[in-house]
């Protein structure tokens, strides 16, 4: 059987990881500023994570959601404290798309409405409702194009308010820092105005923190830079440091109903062990502060570089989520970074480099990256 060929691949077989590095099958080390698409939060193969996962696997890998799972309860308690949402409730699933899918369902159950406002260039996943709220017609299959969603420009509060005022909107869903959209930041006035308008017109505010959350922005959640408290918060990626997991944080205004949501694998024992180990390390190694400090440092070095590097037209982001706009397609530069400088980066659109390193990235690694990037720019001319 052949693999279903939907991914354009780098010709590299990654077989090992440690901290902010991965190695290929020939023993070549790569500096990882991609984090497997923002998934690696505490670093590859962190010893505490490996120990806790191994311990759990030797005890019990999986049992269903029909019995008490104290690991889920511990995770809810720990996460609530760490992120400042002690009074919220936690629903666990297996991916980011599923988190958004369930958040949108909750919003619809609560309001009885079916219309959603989403941002231009948003990415929320590839399942039915999640993909419908994603502003990319190429990945919305006809069966998912059900007319629930209106896309609106981010930071243009007036147009969002005008749509909300029609009184039929069930939810507004936003990424406070757009990832796939190219590291576009939501501003404070928009976020606060949108929260107030959602309240006024009876709509639910969902913050998709799947890429920008879990410490990456230098606060636990990116929306915490903006002084808002969404009704629903979706997370995935960094929560399990590579173990597939997603979650919805649900405000106390939502009352759970038996059977209304459910999943076979969500919140299984091994996933919870991963998420608990991630929180242990985030706390003991102060990774949220590190993301802010190292991110500020890297951003300053990149801005310095922008002053002399003609191909850089903008540098923006928060913490360890940084976009570099180029005046040329990113393809050649990224290929040079991977094959010659042995450095993984992400990208967005055709001309944006997207940096999403593990949250344990250091200033020395940032300096090292700057050298590699300078050499890559020199090589592509
Ligand atoms: C902001 C955002 N939301 C949702 C998703 C979907 O997550 P998953 O691929 O785990 O379904 C992603 C994935 O890249 C994302 O970046």
UniProtKB/TrEMBL annotation:
Keyword rRNA-binding carried by entry: no
Record carries keyword Transferase: yes
One Pfam family cited in the UniProt record for this chain: Aminotran_3
Cofactor: pyridoxal 5'-phosphate
GO molecular function: identical protein binding; pyridoxal phosphate binding; transaminase activity
InterPro entries assigned: Aminotrans_3, Aminotrans_3_PPA_site, Class-III_PLP-dep_AT, PyrdxlP-dep_Trfase, PyrdxlP-dep_Trfase_major, PyrdxlP-dep_Trfase_small
Keyword annotations of the record: Aminotransferase, Pyridoxal phosphate, Transferase
Family: Belongs to the class-III pyridoxal-phosphate-dependent aminotransferase family.
PANTHER family (alphabetical): ACETYLORNITHINE AMINOTRANSFERASE, MITOCHONDRIAL, AMINOTRANSFERASE CLASS III
Name this polypeptide is given: Aspartate aminotransferase family protein
Organism for this UniProt entry: Marseilla massiliensis
